[in-house]
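Researcher: Next entry in the queue.
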Amino acid sequence: MGPRVVVLGAGVIGLSVARALGARGARPLVVDASPAAREASWAAGGILGLGTEYAADGPGYRLARFAFDRWDGVADRLRRETGVPLEVTRAGTLLVAKDAADAAALEARGAFHRSVGLASAMLDGPGARRVEPRLAPRVEAALHVPEARLDNRRLLEALDAACRNAGIEVRTGVRALRCVERGGRVLGVETEHGAVPADAVVVATGAWSEEVAATAGLTLPMVPVKGQMLRVEAPDGFLGPIVKQGPQYLVPQRGRGIVVGTTAEEVGFARGTDEAALARIRAAAEDLVPDLAGRARVEAWAGFRPRLPDLLPALGPVASRPGLFLATGHFRNGILLCEATGELVARAVLGDLDPLLAAFDPERFGRGARSDGGGPRGPVAGGPGQRP
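Model: Structure for this entry, 388 residues:
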């Protein structure tokens, strides 16, 4: 019998880890405090942003490239396993420039892309409008990046279905109170419904991971970054590529119109949206694509991105706490990185530590002081499903 592994978090990261563990003979159990997994995975824009997120080489880019190149195969397998109509659309992204300084920055980004074999193309204003005729006349230049997008909510549905179809139990609405340790080794979790023994625990609770990690004495300076978004009605084909400038983007999603975002707010776990912020988001979108004006708003929401100080995720084993693993801190790139994270962390749990994980050591921020000897603690403050 394979090892019993408790995965904390039922978003795309946790489900990907569980799916990969199950495929390798382990016995994963997924536990999530939310009654329904509608946190960052559900709130995302669905951008597989290899080129828009990275303008220089480094561990973040290398992990993203490893992830990006796998996505067509991943989507195919999930469709076959679940019947969920998950599609990867490779119409690219237009990063647009409003002035000469923006254009110069895009030129530099494009040069890096081409140096690593990513065929981004710099376009003048007319060239950009040939790619996307609805672009505003004020757009002076754009970098056309050959990346992709998918419907993140369908991805979440597909991963959940794939896990359940494989016999993996997913318990939602169950709070994890603490990691259970003996002799410095993590041997399961204590939940509000009792102890769950395990051979390993994987923390994949996104923006709420700091408190979970702290119950095992691990310092994880996680910042929840709130993003407000909205969706407007539009027919399929209204836009071809993603259109993006700075934090503002318009993402076409088949059958769902245009997803428009976003803000980047450090406000703790303050829930909800506000009309002033949504109005600014919409105005910025209409400035890029004027034809969006007058389109009906269908939905508005907010989510919390998990950001660590160096903007890299925390992945793999916690060396000083055998049995504890992390898969968190993906910030804006959880959708892009989820399947690769699942594979790499599952392999690590089973003793196969990929050198790619070295840069993402969960202990790179240090360890917190522990004076309680790993004894019982209360509920994880601020965790999904238990906010004030």
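Model: Residues 369-388 have pLDDT under 50 and may be disordered.
Researcher: Noted, moving on.
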